[in-house]
Amino acid sequence: MKVLILAGGYGTRLYPLIKDTPKALLQVAGKTLIDHTVDKFSGVPNIDELVLVTNAKFADMLTVWARERKGLAFPIRVINDGTHTPEERLGAVGDVLYVLAKERVHSDWVVAGSDNLFDFDIKNFFNFALGKAPHVTVGCYDLQDLAGAVKYGVIQLDGNGRMTSLEEKPARPRSSLISMCLYYFPSASLGLLRQYVEETHNADSTGGYLQWLYQKQPVFGLTFSGKWYDIGSVESYNEAQKVFQS
Which residues pair with 53 in a beta bridge? Predict the structure, then answer.
């Protein structure tokens, strides 16, 4: 099993805070976002490697970070997706496909965003997802705030954890349960990513892929509780600093 961390964005909504620094290297509570993310996988068994995909602008800085990162049971490798500007970016699905095309390995992949900051243990996610394979599993979080849910992919699950609805940034959310950027993609499901892009010509949003996928086959979700922030703006970054320092 391999882990893929998405860090291909340019953090434009965080300008001027990180204009020349990758969002992944922003610090919260004395530790970089990428270290917070990687630490969540450190105790998970059967991880062969962690791959970090980023862009040409930030590849050298993140390669230095990876070289200096110690204390893990698996190696870290940085892949440069070749883009230099926000206008060239491949999008989340595009970066996943870029990595898969380069790797050509038969493996399950766990995909996570480098800007998702949370404090909960993810071992249960792996146990749940393995039990649902070969189907895709997504990490979910209840914001307990309908107004805040309008910025995310809003999910509904049945009693078995199967997705019954997903709406991207709905004006009137049906629930406050949202999709995190945490996915388990069994190897048998990876061809569907390519099919999705071929049919829709949309490589930007993983939420769009899930919306397409759950209508074709089962997709499952596991709901986490605890602290969670999507570090997408200066406001969310400042709020996370306050909460995680406490």
Answer: 6, 79
The whole-number pLDDT of residue 246 equals 64
Instruction: Give the model's pLDDT for residue 193.
Output: 93
**In this structure, are residues 66 and 52 in contact, taking their beta carbons and an 8 Å threshold?**
yes
| Structural element, H or E, at residue 139 | strand 136-142
Q: Which two tokens stand for residue 135?
A: 């189907």
Is the Cα dihedral 26, 117, 165, 213 positive or negative?
Answer: positive
Distance CA 59, CA 197 (A): 25
- CA gyration radius for the chain? 17
Give me the average pLDDT of each 10-residue run along the chain (246 residues): 94 83 92 95 92 97 96 95 95 95 88 93 94 97 94 95 95 94 95 94 90 96 94 88 82
Q: Where are the domains of the chain?
A: 2-138+181-245
C-beta separation of 4 from 96 below 8 A: yes
Instruction: Please tell me the predicted confidence (pLDDT) of residue 103.
Output: 85
- Rounded distance, CA 99 to CA 51, Å? 9
Helix, strand, coil abundance in the chain, percent, nearest 5: 35, 25, 35
Domain 2-138+181-245, CATH:
3.90.550.10
Buried b (16+ CB within 10 A) or exposed e, 31-54: ebbbbbbbebbeebeebeebbbbb
CA dist 22 and 38 (Å) reads 16
Kind and range of the H or E run holding 142: strand 136-142
pLDDT on residue 16 = 80
